[in-house]
Specification:
The complex is a heterodimer of chains A (348) and B (330). Chain A has ten helices and 14 strands. With 348 residues, chain A is an alpha/beta fold. In chain B, the strands form two sheets. Chain B has an eight-stranded mixed beta sheet. Chain B has a four-stranded antiparallel beta sheet with strand order 2-1-4-5. The chains are: A alpha/beta (348), B alpha/beta (330).
């Protein structure tokens, strides 16, 4: 685990991804925006795993896609190893994609059903002209399959012949093909059975040690995120509401949303589970097209008070955890700080 | 929770599907008793037969290609021998169902109101007006704000949590003796899941139903179940009171599942994964269905003989030849 100390490998600064909502008129004028990601900042040190956790619709996947520019950010900056990714032209972006890879959620839809396992894994090698020549290519694919715990003979199989866990391993092998520094893992275990999830989590862990990888691990499952991450960032409705090292986040959550999220995770142990005090959040997630003014969690927050609708809370440091890792929270309970709420934003 | 008389008794339930490769044996001899007011959890991974075994209770399995055998006795009557008309009077009336995905199990072209009142009119013979009034009460009961307006809306106008509440309202409409919740919270976010679990528990206490809760999530089970059946490859491998299953685990598969779960606050522990893959229902292994993946398959019988479910402690049954040593039982 690393904290501070030198340039981070990835720095996301005030990232914004807004999707236009088109009106129904003939001019199809933009009638508003869905603020999927609305000012997200974090850094990841080399060799570190940052967990990005949140519920459906919080913008965690969009954040991951925007970092790789698989979606164009509408604002903010992404810096990778000192280079500004957001301003890069196509040629440099292509070169960069050798260093950043992605593992997708659903191994059923993210592998091309018409390609064999070998072709899927060697596609990135074609794109980046690596390990050219038949023999070299074949050796490299075999190496990659072995690395993720698949028998090299599986190269001739097609995705439909594989189990969910095997498919996800193929997805990981494809990501590793270009020897990336950073892998964005978007819900890599959500579609898998419990006994297979542990296999994939252990694999990611081993590969990190072996290949010195840096991970952005995106998931809704707080237990899994806490298991694999050094630090965790919690997202709600397009924003990061809390960042801390994993031990401190579990032991001393400082944001009411994080507390509710932690309290909602079931514990596989009946006496502890029965004793668990759940904080039940009222209501549903507000629309990201029309988020509440000020703190966007205030409509469901059990501790809402006077400044919440007026002031957009900024991330502030509330302490330090293991190894001096800053613990940051965007909540007025820890001191009112931030910018006045935008005029004209919804007040609900 | 105290439990009453047996309301539902399942004996040697088998479900087979004809496939091009031969018969797929999806449920292979499942037996249990369900008591009034009790919550029985059926736990298993994809393909374990947990869902199919409950769909088969009211023959909600297309036959052919499916084939259901065994006994399902509800208040002295074997449901599997009932003619279709009589069976329809059981579905929704005496055994209510909540399905996993409210987006695909609600009818998109009918209003919420119509879907809730359907059972009330059909089973209870309520007039349209009375059914509507009752539907409003039900939506209120499951915590849907502004129920009058919601009755006129379509499923796509509701959030996932609200749709699941509608499913629960439909499941409860006729106050069934048995409510089957099939992965009722799986598609939901954890904070919404917590709302739904609490709701079902409250309603169960108020209405005194027995609940069969089908899930793959051993965390949810720990909080709601009185008793647990662990299914794998179409068979019950272990059955125990919830506390015993976790504190005194006897089957290597159950132990493997528990060891493979990440737990908040226990980060850093290496997860113990179960190697290999679940069995193919068309080509089930001989002997114990779990033996190809089992770390304790030392007994020669594991690969040749079917281990019977035997009682190892009061109310605790396990289908395994191996005695899991006390220190491995968590």
């Amino acid at each position: 685990m690393t904290a501070g100390g030198g340039e981070p490998l990835l720095a996301v600064e005030d990232l914004q991804v807004w999707f236009p909502i088109k009106g129904n008129g003939v001019l199809r004028r933009t009638a508003g925006h869905v603020r999927a990601v609305d000012g997200v900042s974090f850094t990841i040190a080399r060799g570190e795993t940052l967990g990005l956790v949140g519920e459906s619709g919080c913008g965690k996947t969009t954040t991951g896609l925007a970092i790789l520019r698989l979606l164009e950010p509408t604002g903010g900056r992404v810096r990778f190893d000192g280079d500004d990714v957001t301003g890069m032209g196509r040629r440099r972006l292509r070169a960069l994609r050798r260093r950043m890879a992605m593992v997708f959620q659903d191994p059923y839809s993210s592998l091309d059903p018409r390609l064999s396992v070998g072709a899927i894994v060697s596609e990135p090698l074609d794109v980046h002209r690596l390990h050219t020549g038949r023999a070299a290519r074949k050796a490299r694919v075999g190496e990659l399959l072995e690395l993720v715990g698949l028998r090299p003979e599986l190269r001739d199989r097609y995705p439909h012949e594989l189990s969910g866990g095997q498919r996800q391993r193929v997805g990981v092998a494809r990501a590793l093909a270009v020897e990336p520094d950073l892998i964005v893992c978007d819900e890599p275990i959500a579609a898998l059975d419990v006994s297979i999830q542990a296999q994939v989590l252990n694999l990611l862990d081993d590969l990190q040690d072996e290949l010195d990888l840096t991970y952005l691990f995106i998931a809704h499952d707080l237990a899994a995120v806490q298991h694999v991450s050094d630090r965790i960032a919690v997202m709600y409705l397009g924003r990061v509401v809390e960042v801390a090292d994993r031990a401190r986040l579990a032991a001393e959550p400082a944001h009411p949303y994080t507390r509710a999220l932690l309290s909602a995770v079931p514990i596989p142990d009946p006496p502890r589970e029965r004793a668990r005090r759940r904080i039940i959040l009222e209501g549903d997630l507000p629309s990201p097209a029309d988020p509440p003014s000020g703190c966007n969690f205030r409509t469901r927050c059990p501790e809402v008070f006077e400044p919440c609708p007026r002031v957009d809370p900024a991330l502030q440091e509330v302490g330090r955890g293991t190894g001096g890792v800053p613990h940051e929270v965007a909540c007025h309970l820890h001191g009112v700080t931030g910018t006045p709420a935008e005029a004209g934003r919804a007040y609900s | 929770m105290s439990t009453g008389d047996v309301v539902l008794s399942v004996r040697d339930l088998r479900v087979t599907f004809g496939t091009a490769r031969g018969p797929a044996r999806v449920v292979e001899g499942v037996s249990y008793d369900l008591h009034a007011g009790e919550t029985l959890a059926i736990v298993g991974e994809s393909g374990s037969g947990k869902s199919v075994s409950t769909l088969a209770l009211t023959r909600l399995i297309p036959e052919p290609p499916g084939r259901v055998e065994g006994e399902v006795v509800l208040a002295g009557q074997d449901l599997l021998t009932l003619p279709p008309g009589a069976l329809r009077k059981v579905r929704g009336r005496r055994i209510g169902m909540i399905f996993q995905d409210p987006m695909t199990s609600l009818n998109p072209v009918l209003t919420v109101g119509r879907q809730v009142t359907e059972g009330l009119e059909h089973h209870l013979g309520l007039s349209e007006k009375d059914a509507r009034r009752r539907a409003r009460e039900l939506l209120d009961l499951v915590g849907i704000p502004d129920p009058e307006r919601r009755l006129g809306e379509y499923p796509h106008q509701l959030s996932g949590g609200m749709r699941q509440r509608v499913m629960i309202a439909i499941g409860l409409a006729c106050e069934p003796e048995v409510l089957v919740a099939d992965e009722a919270t799986t598609a939901l976010d954890v904070t919404i899941q917590a709302q739904i679990v609490e709701l079902v528990q409250r309603l169960q206490a108020e209405l005194g139903m027995a609940v069969i809760w089908i899930t793959h999530d051993l965390g949810v089970v720990a909080g709601i179940a009185d008793r647990v059946l662990v299914m794998y490859g179409g068979r019950v491998l272990e059955e125990a009171a919830a506390d015993d299953l976790y504190a005194d685990t006897r089957h290597p598969y159950t132990a493997g599942l528990l060891a493979s779960l990440p737990v908040v606050g226990e980060a850093g522990r290496r997860l113990v994964s179960i190697t290999g893959l679940p069995p193919d229902p068309v080509d089930l292994p001989p002997g114990c269905v779990f033996h190809p993946r089992c770390p304790h398959r030392d007994d020669p019988r594991c690969a040749t003989e079917l281990p019977p479910l035997r009682e190892v402690a009061p109310g605790h049954r396990v289908a395994c030849f191996y005695e899991l040593p006390a220190e491995a039982r968590r």
